Amino acid sequence: MIHAAIHHCRTVLSILILLLIAGTYAYINIAKESSPDIDIPQIYVSMSLEGISPDDSERLLLRPMEQELATIEGVKEMKSTAYQGGGFVLLEFQAGFNKDIALDDVQKAVDQARPELPDDVEEPSVTEVNFSLFPVLVVTLSGNMPERTLLKLAQNLQDRIETISSVLDVNIAGDREELVEILVNPELLESYALNGNDIMNLFKVSNRLVAAGNLDTGAGRFAIKVPGLFETVHDVMNMPLRVNEDSVIKVRDIAEIRRTFKDPDSIARLRGERAIAIEVVKRSGENIIDTVKAVRKIVAEESKFWPQDVEVSFTQDESETIKTMLLDLQNNVISAIILVMIVVVFALGVRTATLVGIAIPGAFLTGIFVIYVMGLTVNIVVLFSLTLSIGMLVDGAIVVTEYADRKLSEGVPRDKAYGEAARRMAWPIISSTATTLAAFAPLLFWPDTVGEFMKYMPITLIAVLASSMLMALIFVPTLGALYGKPGAAGDPKMMRMLTTSEDGDLKTITGFTGLYLTVLEVALKRPGRILLLALVLLIGVQSAYMKFGKGVEFFPSIEPDFASVLIHARGNLSIYEQDKLVKEVEDIVLEVDGIETMYSRIGTSKQKGTDLPEDAIGQIQIAFTDWDTRKPASEILNEIRERTSSLAGIFIETRKQKEGPAAGKAVEIQIASRFPEKLGPATVQILHILEELGDFRDIEDTRPLPGIEWELEVDRAQASKFGMDITTIGNYIRMVTNGLKVAEYRPDDSDDEIDIVIRHGTEQRTLDQLDNVRIEGANGSVPISSFVNRSAQPAVGVIYRSDQRRIVTVKADLPPEININAKVEQIKGWLSKKLDKLDPEVEITFKGQDEDQRNSQSFLTKAFIVALFMMAIILVTQFNSFYSAFLILTAVIMSTIGVMIGLMVTGQPFGIVMTGVGVIALAGIIVNNNIVLIDTFDHLRRQYGDSMDIREIILRTGAQRLRPVLLTTITTVIGLMPMVLQLNIDFI
User: Exposed site from 434, 545, 577, 770, fewest CB < 10 Å?
Assistant: First the structure.
């Protein structure tokens, strides 16, 4: 194949040009996004029943649903939550699950459970959880103007943005549903003897679409129309309620009617001003940069017609992050090419270095083209993998060009020199590439969400490194055969050294190579001592790291662009009281330097699987200015904590943005039991442990919060004496609370139906009024207190369950300088010593990051072992020798000495994900160099085995292969230096 490629050089060059063009096209047009678009193995079943308590939700909604869902195969864990107004069940499947089959199984189970649910419950919804369903851009509208105006502008903008083909969904946050309120006076209702149930029935029969049919007179055919639907507020005002002889009592006579909004349960603000946010979700596989660009264009067009007081802000713009990363990658590639070229020019000359330089963009763009054809996207994992591969792309090209350079210096024609170099180094390069790919191949089977997140890395590296092998064996030799010429090897001094390394006196070699041979000769005279020293060093360094190192971490912490400030408060606080408390924190945060934007959401969030604590009354999302223009995020957040520590009645928690797979707090301990009464004491024990061990902060647990709720107990027997039933009593009570819905209508200026509710005026919506409500019965007006007893009861709050058991979860964070893994092990050690003090009917499990870390650590250990076996098989096939394979794999184990020393010198912890992947990548690189050495050793032994002893063959092997081994190692290191040093020279 190599001979055919050189002979048909024009065809090969045409293919190379095609690959470069196709790769460039793919790089420009491939979908770009921040996080990988992965299928999270979770399915969400939501149930809603207005007014249902958490206790009743658990008993009537969750338990029947859990019994059916528990029969589904492949479910890893089933979590459920009951809250005021409904509940949900979250199913987590094994990684790699078939999404379509799982959704079908869940829907069938939900359909089977439906008859066992209350009749009034809304139809349960089944949805999948997907990273791509999170917003890629939030457009925020704020300003000093009426809420209705902002909402109308947001709705119009929502309609325009939804026309973009790459946009999947557009949601409005911070808005309120519209409402028509009929504010009645209780005294007027009583004086006119109006019955609430009669009013409801009147609205139902008056607000109807009547299809009166057609009239055919024989002389014509006419449609007959009887308008009956409410179209305006005036239609509602003029609706008759009672007729007494000639007098008609209309709604306007007993009530004030106004078109307004529902009572707020959340409030949104941008930089302290009331705001409405438009959250834009892109379609899976679409280009995030183009999508955000199209959204910004529409916003710019629409804003031309808006009032000047409207302020438009863009937050959570993930396209900026991905554009910055792409620019950094391009600059890193250019920097790496320049640095590699400098080294190769110094060692091999300009023309040979040009051949090596072509291999980088060639392999890089070919790999991108493969990713594009596979339908994958460019994201942070792909970009990291591409940057990681830059230094490894040139290894094969260097080995081939270095060998060809030596042959050219001996006077061999360039076509024969490069042909012989490619043929001679073909198997070493194929074997070294195969072993590198074997090191990464097991990562394709990484389980769980972390594996789905990280699988893009082995796919990318396999595509790029396989492309680099083609470059080294086909395209570089073909180009070299066309215009290659002797490089550094053409220097007379270098030629003498190379000739001497072949069959001359090795003692005459000077310079760095001579020094290396001297050291190697000394080592060969004392092989036992050298091996013992290496073994002692291996054990010593590992032990030293365990004692003095920074421990183990799951995923590396980075300098974030975003952070959240959570405001905790307890008690029966109204939304306006919560708003006032959050406003105090906002005023302090606005004074802190280094914050670009601040978006606040006020109100508790108790449903839909949110990770927010139950007592969080508000969340402030802050975007930092550029990292190089401000203090570290940890210092900014500590300043916020210090400044807000004096605020009474609230507790402040800060959370930094985390890269990588979604993760909660540093420590998550789940306490489960089939006996709910035992969860409280066990939770107190765990909290005491955390307090005793120290260093923990932002500790929270999911026990019900202290608070009260008012229970109205109806004496059914007494109520029946007055002709009252539960439904009638409940309807009258709703007029004091949120309002009694009597009808709905769709005006011309609204796309949605608007509820019409009857309720008492603001001054009459009090606790005392609950006792004073009078119900119109057959025998006149009756006070509700005659058959209803009002009492304060402890609030239940939110109920959490896992695998059909009640659970409480204790969560805590740690300061950045404390190693999470070490602290978790400390807790486990304490628990193991105090087993006699723990209730045996209570199960304690470590969840969250610790669970992910244990799973990933277990997998990566197995992956490393499997990779070693795969490399061993390749090496045995290459050399037909168990000894050679063992020798090379031993070098892989020894290479971890440098890893641990590097971690101790830099003060970095061993990252389960990133360092683990780095060690696997290192194994591939170490094998490459050793294959080249042992292949040359075997070649020399076959050629000179009768005339040279083994020691001399080893020395000649070292002398001949020192230059390519050093070059491949140096270029790999230099290729990574721009990323390591965060050195970003802006070439573009």
Answer: 577
pLDDT band at 294 (very low <50, low <70, confident <90, very high): very high
| Mean pLDDT on 502-525 | 80
Type and span of the H or E element at 697: strand 697-701
Q: Is the pLDDT of residue 188 over 70?
A: yes
Cα(487)–Cα(345) distance, integer angstroms = 8
Determine the length of the chain. 988
According to DSSP, the residues that pair with 222 across neighbouring strands are 215
Query: Strand, helix or coil at 785?
Result: helix
Q: Whole-angstrom Cα distance, residue 412 to residue 583?
A: 81
SS (H, E, C) 18-37: HHHHHHHHHHHHCCECCCCC
pLDDT > 50? residue 609: no
Distance CA 90, CA 92 (A): 7
What are the tokens at 105? Answer: 């199984």
pLDDT in tens, 109-124: 999 999 999 888 888 9
Q: How is residue 769 written in tokens? A: 């009024």
Given a contact cutoff of 8 angstroms between Cβ atoms, the answer to whether 507 and 35 are in contact is no
Question: How much is the pLDDT for 499?
Answer: 66
Q: Which pLDDT belongs to residue 607? A: 41
Provide the 10 A C-beta neighbour count for residue 681: 11
Q: Position of tokens 């792309």?
A: 393
Element containing residue 352 per DSSP (H, E): helix 350-373
CB 257 within 8 A of CB 182: yes
pLDDT exceeds cutoff 80 at 884? yes
How confident is the model over 780-787, as a mean pLDDT?
Answer: 81
Residue keyed to tokens 């990291």? 384
C-alpha 43/C-alpha 69 separation (Å) is 11
E strand or H helix at 275: strand 273-282
- Give the residue with greater pLDDT, 604 vs 688: 688
Q: Count how many Cα atoms sit within 13 Å of the Cα of residue 489 in the half-sphere of its side chain.
A: 26
DSSP conformation class of 378: B
How many other β-carbons are positioned within 10 Å of the β-carbon of residue 37?
19
How many C-beta atoms surround the C-beta of residue 647 within 10 A? 15
Quote the pLDDT of residue 112: 92
Buried b / exposed e along 63-91 (16+ C-beta atoms within 10 A): bbbbebbeebeebeebbbbbbbbbbbbbb
Q: Is the pLDDT of residue 284 over 80?
A: no
Q: Whose CA is closest to 173, among 602, 467, 475? A: 602
Q: Which residue has the tokens 């290729």?
A: 975
CA–CA gap between residue 157 and residue 138 (Å, rounded): 12
- 497 and 26 Cβ atoms separated by less than 8 Å: no
d(CA 774, CA 188): 11
How high is the pLDDT of residue 108? 92
In the numeric block, which tokens belong to residue 495? 């030629």
Kindly state the tokens that stand for 834.
């105090």
857-868: b (≥16 Cβ within 10 Å) or e: bebbeebbeebb
pLDDT at 130: 61
Out of 78-92, 93-107, 843-857, 936-950, the most confident range is 78-92
Residue 69: closest CA among 45, 42, 53? 45
Are the C-beta atoms of 124 and 44 separated by less than 8 Å? no
pLDDT interval class at 608 (50, 70, 90) = very low
Q: What is the DSSP string of 41-86?
A: EEEEEEEE-TT--HHHHIIIIIHHHHHHHTTSTTEEEEEEEEETTE
- Per the rule left: phi > 0, alpha: psi between -120 and 50, beta: everything else, 170 is beta
End-to-end Cα distance, the chain: 39
Q: Measure Cα distances from 303 to 246, 289, 300, 433, 612 in Å.
A: 55, 21, 5, 55, 34
Angle between helices 9-29 and 350-373 (to 10 degrees): 50
Give the pLDDT mean for 205-218.
Answer: 74
Select from 480, 531, 425, 522 the least CA-distant residue to 960.
425
Each residue's pLDDT tens digit, 442-472: 888 877 777 777 788 888 888 988 898 888 8
